[in-house]
Amino acid sequence: MPDRWEAPAKVNLGLRVRPRDPAGYHPVVSLVQTIQLVDTLEVETAEEDLLLVDGEIREGRDDLVWRAVDELTAGRERPRLRWRLTKRIPVAAGLGGGSSDAAAALRATLAVTGWPDDPHPIAGRIGMDVAFFLVGGTAWMEGYGERITRIEPLRGFALTVVVPPFELRTEAVYRAWDELDEPEGPPVGDRDLPPALRAYGPLRNDLTPAAVALRPELGDWIDELRHRWDRPVLLSGSGPALFSFFADLDEAASAAEVVPAGTRFAEPAALRSEGVTRRPDDR
Length: 283
Description:
Layout: E1 3-17, E2 28-45, E3 50-53, E4 56-57, H1 64-73, E5 81-86, H2 97-113, H3 120-126, H4 130-135, E6 138-143, E7 147-150, E8 158-163, H5 170-179, H6 208-214, H7 216-229, E9 234-235, E10 242-246, H8 249-256, E11 265-269, E12 277-278
Parallel strand pairs: 3-5
Antiparallel strand pairs: 1-2, 1-12, 2-5, 2-6, 3-4, 6-7, 8-10, 8-11, 9-10
């Protein structure tokens, strides 16, 4: 029977970007939170390596699942692995789905092989958010994603997550941020935040102006959701996923029902206190 792992999405409750370093990378300080929206990754030993994504064979080894496996097992013999990835997290949306899948692949590979390795040291070589997904919950993510500091889990509110019907590539958004002379994102002040978040406010996402510059219709989506929900709307990561805060899941579900036509994804989301985990029904 294959091992099944949950790979959750995240939102950047706040994201402050620092100027590009000599190597071309941007340090960040981000308040990040896993949510109850998950991909499912199954693994079992097999006669040959194979990755199925939503039932389709994924050719090549540039997928983040294989990158994680290859980084972890470089120079060592391992069993051949058959992976089955079921996607629910929208791709290229700023919700970290690919990085979460990679973190799940690290944990799953260690479980299959029985190796006692700590996956954290190699996580940053795979993707910025991978180290966070090994931990999950509520945390500060700093530097280039490698410094994770867990804090007291947030409670007392839910989110509604909406993804407009287009994609944004992270590299392009950061490049636009440089070209716009490193703007700050619009802040959300304490009185517009849930009580549990007010100690961390004001919150802002510095990539918002760059994302809107690349896709001006994103600004229209933000304005329309702000009007329909009567509350501030924030961007997660490099976008285009948008979210806002609601008192509970029922209120968040009602908000998900009044989104603009053409929405790619709209769901309420509870906060999740953990990162990638083995599915409890497997053990």
